[in-house]
Amino acid sequence: MNNKRVCLIFGSGATAGSGLRFTENAKTTLKEQGIELKKFDIPMDSNFWDCVKVRQEFFPALTLLRKSKLKCLKSMERTWSLTNLVHQKRLGFIFDSVIWEALSTFKDWPFKHIFELYDFFNAIEAQYIKQNQRAPFNLKRNDRHPHLFCGDIDTEWRSLVYLIYKCGNFSLTNNSKNQYAELFDKLRSRERNFDIISFNYDLLTENTLKEKYSYVSENGKSCSSKKLPALVKLHGSLNWLQKAREPVHFKEKEVEPKYNNNGSVWFEQPAMVPPTFNKAEINRPEDDPNRDDSVRRIIGKQWEFAENILQKSQCWVFIGYGFPDTDEHARNLFKDSYNKISGEKPKICYCVYNTCDSERDKIKKIFGEGDNIKCFHKGFKDFATNDLNRILGSLNSCRT
């Protein structure tokens, strides 16, 4: 069967390299909401805490965590993942060995033993509760379990991501172009059908495609076609509404996180999963009563559909995705999908923003050696403007 589909895989580096920057008004507004941006560039995961500073009265749990031993962690994924792992352990969903194996890849790790890690979190939670300070949006929450610190970290993260990555915060700089648009236009001009796998919570891809895409629903289906790409979001999205005891709904704009207590536990928030090592939100134990809630169902369908897309694509294009240590589940997704393809393997194009050989070493370790792997180190703009046409021209006209 003739197949000219290309699979685009976007990481946080794609957002950072899109050509969009924070507006002056956005920086002012965010400062009033307790968020100081150190520059106009959109922060990537790897340098998140080098770009963002939060005030204690707005984000007390995150501020306390940042003042502790964990200042060495610059990544959003690593910081969020760490607290999520400890939280899952306290709820009895994962074991010490799983956590310690996951954390073994950390550089400059401040803990020498798993129990030292737990002692640290117990002490910091006791300090947090003693201060009796919660973020404004958490003041009316009525937690049914005692782990306030880790629980508040999660809601503070969601609110922080929502405030920073709203599309109204960004605009194109002078003489710039939205590189998402450049990429999509090039693919269409060469009559290449494409699908998208995204690790990003933001809506820059959606706003660029202007409704010419299809999400994967809870039933695992997408109405994608030759001209309508499927947009798979493996970690959820800012516009996916998660409401207590209700299915996830796709909304046009970002969902503002709201937490309240009117005689019962009530919330609405963006349906997102922390980018954790073992994806506990997806791989719940069989006896977990929350295993089949609406967020886990829809996220699980994203991962299933992603494998289907990868196995049917002639070329995989990674843009701004660095295979972080926190994403073992994703590495397995790509490696397993690649190995399951019989016959000619897809071409792999890897676009990053540095010349470090460690990125290529990661690619080779996952997919093996071969002429079908090409690395590009000059970033999203150079790739979309100069490299993509050559890549598309080199692809075989068909693949069975």
What's this entry about, in short?
By secondary structure, the protein is of the alpha/beta class. The chain is built from 14 helices and 15 strands.
List the helices and strands and how they pair.
Elements lengths: L5 E5 L1 H5 L3 E3 L1 H9 L2 E3 L10 H4 E3 L5 H7 L9 H15 L5 H8 L10 H18 L16 H18 L4 E3 L6 H11 L4 E5 L5 H6 L4 E2 L14 E4 L2 E8 L5 E2 L7 E4 L3 E8 L21 H18 L3 E5 L8 H13 L6 E5 L5 H11 L5 E4 L3 H15 L6
Parallel strand pairs: 1-6, 1-13, 6-8, 7-8, 13-14, 14-15
Antiparallel strand pairs: 2-5, 3-4, 9-10, 9-12, 11-12
Description of the molecule:
- With 400 residues, the chain is an alpha/beta fold.
- Helices cover 40% and strands 16% of the residues.
- It has helices at residues 12-16, 24-32, 48-51, 60-66, 76-90, 96-103, 114-131, 148-165, 179-189, 204-209, 294-311, 328-340, 357-367, 380-394, and strands spanning 6-10, 20-22, 35-37, 52-54, 170-172, 194-198, 214-215, 230-233, 236-243, 249-250, 258-261, 265-272, 315-319, 347-351, 373-376.
- A 7-stranded parallel beta sheet has the order 7-8-6-1-13-14-15, sandwiched between helices. It has a 4-stranded antiparallel beta sheet with strand order 10-9-12-11.
- Helix 11 (294-311) packs parallel to helix 12.
- It is globular, with a radius of gyration of 21 Å.
